[in-house]
Specification:
By secondary structure, the chain is mainly α. The protein is built from 2 helices and no strands. It has a domain at about 25-58. The chain is elongated, with a radius of gyration of 18 Å. GO terms for molecular function: symporter activity. Its main location: membrane.
């Protein structure tokens, strides 16, 4: 049930950012920067994953 609430909140937040236009740009910039940081971390983890699997089986 909480997933429906989160989905509604995300949609409502996105619509709100779209409606306010230029005033929402700083929020969009923060979210974009956060997304870049998360993708960087995932990339590093995936590059190290084969080493972790190798060490696990040794």
């Amino acid at each position: 049930m909480i997933y429906y609430q989160l989905s509604f909140l995300q949609s409502f937040f996105g619509i709100g950012l779209s409606v306010i236009g230029e005033k929402g740009q700083p929020v969009k910039d923060v979210l974009s920067g956060t997304l870049d940081a998360v993708f960087w971390m995932i990339n590093k983890i995936l590059k190290l994953a084969p080493l972790g699997v190798f060490c696990f089986y040794m």
